[in-house]
Protein 1
Amino acid sequence: MNNKTPLFHVSRRKEIIWYKAWGIRAIAIVLALLLCGIITMITTGLNPLSVYVTMIDGAFGTSRRIWMLLQNMAILLCISLALAPAFKMKFWNLGGDGQALMGALGSAAAMILLGDKIPNWLLIIVMIAASIAGGIIWAVIPAYFKAKFNTNETLFTLMMNYVAIQLVAFFVIVWEVPKGAGKIGIINQNSQAGWFPSIGGSKYLLNVIIVVVITILMYIYMNYSKHGYELSVVGESVPTAKYVGIKVNKVIIRTMVLSGAVCGLAGLLLVGGSEHTLTTTLVDGRGFTGVMVAWLGKFNPFFMILTTFLLVFLDRGANEITTIYGLNSSFGAIITGIILFFILGSEFFLNYKMTFRHKSKEAA
């Protein structure tokens, strides 16, 4: 009986040098833009080049749009940086939204309860401590249960998001202004107690600077510290980590403390640095988008800047073409989805290769 050889087989590829990897991703983006152009012409009759120019204008058209782009990048990157150590350790932390919300709740509580009682510099210090504490508490709970009872961290952190949303919803009603409004509004609008100071005439610049510093520190931590080495070993193989004497449970809890703290800081940046309010939708799903940023950036904080820019640019651009051309909001989402599909698909070719069989003489 003849054995039929498969037409091709898939095998894992050796690690590709970084500039080749980004080259493959660039090709994927070009192909995605070509497909989006064809779809745009067929479905709307618009010139795809005009649509792409409008997307660029939506992100960079004015100085205000540029600052909004940078602000959105800063918040998304901050949450993505928080998730990166956990995911590198293969702890699937889907609780970024909840941890950031708890950080925001801590900051808002400090602003509302202490805004007119202590000096502004002391208030900001209290806000920092409260936001970090809120994020840590929300991250350590699932970490503890994972370390002690091997619970499913994916479901645990996901459910913690919903608990955080309900807690925030409760305190929004407690602090609502005016009573019966169902929302807090701008916190300390007259006194601006707890608001971050403007730098260079922009209220967003301090947020950007803080996230740049966090990015550098996170890169150093993950690549040049003992803790970063240990979480990498745990991520590669738990049995190996135990064999070489690494206390896995301690690494899990310690890493999630860091993850929660940085998520909490993201909540602080939202409340103290840009939005100055508290709502259940304040984080806006960035905890889930941050997972994509971390994976696409290969857990490298500097590469994550590029993936953050891409996702925020697509979001801003999609909103702009929807507004300018009067299109259904779903059209912008379709364009964004196609581009992300191609980018995520390119990851297959970065990690695997397809080998086609050669023609050979059949056995007599």
Protein 2
Amino acid sequence: MLVDKVFQEDGTMECLYKSSNILTSEYNEKSQKLIITFNYGGKYAYHNVSYKDYLRFEADESQGKVFNKYIKIHKTDNLGKTDVTLLKERLNNLLNGTVQEISEGDSE
């Protein structure tokens, strides 16, 4: 289930999910590259993912089902493992309604 979505200046869409396996995705329509970070920290890039398939993935209640049917068939690069501690904390804060905006004076 999609929990949060951020648009970057370069057109990349970054999403955070509540899912048993998938934590985040980054998709750029121009490059048709989808980067998925899994809950265990594994990070993979999937190439030539159509915008239509990406939208299916993002919008579905079960990212895993769409991933298995439409995404994992694409050429894949293993990008290694990443620390997901802060991402999981952010997800929990969003789900619990405890996200706080950071003002310029609080960024020290």
Protein 3
Amino acid sequence: MNNYSLKCRGIGCLLLIALLLLCSAGCSESVGSQGEPDQIGVVSAVDQERSGLLFINEYEGGHAYRTPSGTFLVLDLRGSWTHMGRQYGGLAGEDLRLFHDRIVADLTSRGVSGDHQLATAQELFDSLSPELQELLKGMSETSGLTMDEVMVLNAGVILLTDAILSDRLPGLPDDAPAGCSGIGVWDQYTEDGSVIFGRNWDIDRASMKEYMEFLSVVVLHPDDGYSYANIHPLGNVYLETGMNEFGLFIELNNGAHSDPAEPADRQNTASVLVDVLRECRDVEEAVLMLKAIPADLSYILQIADPAKAVSLERGTFDARVRDHDDEGLVIAVNHFIPPYPPEWSAWIQPPRTDEDDPRYSNMLRLAQSPAYMGHFNLELMQEYLMVPIEEGGAYHAGTVYQVVAVPDTLTIWLHACEYAGWEEIPLASLLG
């Protein structure tokens, strides 16, 4: 597993290794529509030490890096939302164009018309916060994409998910929803007591893996809030997995099985999560903020900080922090976990049975087994996430990518299934 940053004493050695790695990975530096990058593959020892990544380019004060193998793009953006959008587009324009054209062609081949793509993209854009709208507008100024193209790319994964789910999700029961799973461990479950969080992002690997070259980590330093990292395909500015400068980590799971309601005129949760990371320092602050905002759709939100993790079952009618599955353990899939508050009975659907969806029971049983309980560390969490559903885990044909987060050290590891191995992304210096 690729969990080690490159270290080199001399700038000459550093440059040689960087160029060799980039060439061997077949990665090209991306520039926007405003001209050639200021620097390609050249970086000071200070910059390399600060990021632990391979420096690629600079644009209007923003920086682009790649992980040591050259697999994943990491952007570091700073300033106003429009300015950060300009940096985004200027640094990643070629990749954004390639991603846009490929996913639009895919959607069109699946019968999703251009008019529907744009209408869905506009609806998503309108649901985002003014800050994220400004970010997307800034991207359109420097990326070489029109504003309509920027919006369609932002909605591309959502559109593709809808198209995929018009058929059945392979590897799970016929009526299984799109969804994800997560596990937080600490205290008696980890070898040193620290918090480790593991997350599976699930839709359909066969359909999604060709887009994993665009999986990225974008670090934003807004003028008006805390810095945060968004772990998402390029050009997707809403948030489903992220961490801020205090080690506050959030991941989102679909909860529509338990509460399928879709009330109108509420804030988009994936936009609200950006505000949570911009404004909150720990689990308690995040929970209070999320409980105070009515949900547009039902989600199960896992929230972790350097001290603990919780699962917030956030329905459209109410929200609660569910009791831990054990001291130092929280597990979540795509339905709320009973027992429920009595007043929820009129609103909530029964959970899936183990026969229909064994992931929750599998994950709980596996985490409490002698092989894992008390022994969780980085490597063991990665191993845990890869245990197939047929062998008592949660990994299945829908699992597209996986994230392991250690809030205390501001570090994440990213794995694109059947595309690349685990890669370390050290966020501490980037978020600082």
